[in-house]
Design a protein that fits this description.
about 375 residues; alpha/beta; 9-stranded mixed β-sheet; 11 helices; 14 strands
């Protein structure tokens, strides 16, 4: 029986002016050259995901199709943690040092980097967290996979948003920034949000309190037709004994004040993902969503994969970083502990995928794991 996520009908009315791509076609990257082996393999991946998207759309779901995708090393790391305490000169004594993760470590090879842009081309939206926005300030656009009907030339200017929009299907950037910490840091430091300059608009999902507190200040810098603030509900909070770090709970802000000590911390205080997805589908017509990271975002979505995730696409690169400097992809997600609480320790197995819906492939020097999270097609 198919897992039907959010089966309530979606109303045709919408308060948004957003018009994301209504349909996607997985075809070879058009060029004057013959289709390469890499392009063929990428298209095989896109074809599977597009088929799953069509199956999802057969049901009047009130949330988008969700694809969680990221690149990781052999030891499961997606980024490095940088020591930002410039006053701490003793490298052997890191106690009290502040760490901030960054994904600006090149992981994917050239071919799988192209796959990432191809995946962006078949989704209406691309989602990251506020901490990733502040740390990496990514453009979040598709620059490497032209649309089937385009005739993009090799000299298309990456910084020319008009040309990019004409030749390339572009996802809408979506930032999940619970308390608007990442966004406000950028505004106060007068740092331009790069994704704004490369897109007609971006969506920022935040709590109702943050929306009320910072709406006017955000819109004084970015017009409301450029940045759309989306007010969302919070998860219920519970106080537990745990490690207060920058990936605790499902709060995407990250934060860089974690002590790493066992203390009373708020768990589950981030945005309610079901409500976020409902709002994106209803208010902004986002029918398909690509979730890229960072670690807190990935952990939040994977911890609720059975309810909200349709497929997972992981690029595994032949590199090792180690736990000292590396940031785990699912650092904030303990599936076994979660299942232990739900099932009283019975039948612990983590998140398993149906072997009949798993594809392993090699693109460039990297390995691609692709799997559907839906129980039946």
């Amino acid at each position: 029986m198919m897992k039907m996520k959010g089966v309530e009908a979606v109303t045709s009315t919408s308060t948004s002016t957003s018009t994301p791509t209504s349909s996607h076609t997985a075809v070879a990257n058009p060029s004057s050259k013959a289709v390469t082996i890499t392009e063929t393999k990428i298209n095989e991946t896109l074809s599977k995901i597009c088929r799953w998207q069509k199956i999802h759309q057969k049901f009047e779901s009130n949330i988008p199709f969700v694809c969680v995708t990221y690149a990781q090393t052999l030891d499961g790391m997606i980024a490095v943690c940088n020591n930002n305490n410039n006053n701490n000169k003793d490298k052997n004594n890191m106690e009290g040092a502040t760490k901030q993760s960054s994904s600006n470590l090149a992981l994917s090879c050239e071919e799988t980097f192209q796959l990432t842009h191809a995946l962006r081309s078949i989704h209406d939206g691309i989602l990251i967290g506020g901490n990733t926005l502040f740390t990496d300030n990514p453009r979040l656009n598709n620059r490497l996979w032209p649309s089937p009907s385009s005739s993009a030339s090799d000299d298309t200017n990456d910084n020319d948003s008009e040309n990019l929009d004409h030749y390339y299907n572009q996802p809408v950037p979506i930032i999940m920034d619970t308390h608007l910490n990442g966004v406000m840091k950028m505004i106060k430091s007068k740092t331009t949000i790069r994704s704004v300059s490369s897109h007609n608009k971006i969506i920022i999902c935040c709590s109702e309190d943050a929306y009320k507190t910072y709406k006017e200040e955000v819109q004084s810098v970015y017009p409301c037709n450029t940045i759309h603030l989306c007010s969302c509900k919070l998860n219920e909070q519970s106080i537990e004994m745990g490690t207060n770090n920058d990936d605790s709970g499902s709060d995407d802000d990250g934060g860089d004040s974690g002590s790493g000590k066992n203390d009373l911390v708020l768990k589950g205080g981030g945005l309610n993902l079901q409500n976020v997805l409902n709002n994106l589908r209803r208010e902004h017509r986002i029918k398909s969503l690509m979730v890229e990271g960072g670690s807190s975002i990935l952990s939040s979505f994977i911890s609720q994969a059975n309810d909200i995730v349709d497929c997972v696409c992981v690029t595994i690169v032949p590199k090792l970083i180690g736990g000292g400097s590396g940031l785990s992809a699912l650092k904030g997600c303990d599936l076994l502990q979660q299942q232990h609480k739900q099932n009283n320790g019975i039948g612990l197995k983590g998140l398993e995928f149906d072997p009949s819906k798993i594809t392993w492939s090699t693109i460039g020097c990297d390995c691609i794991f692709l799997a559907s999270c839906v129980s039946s097609e």
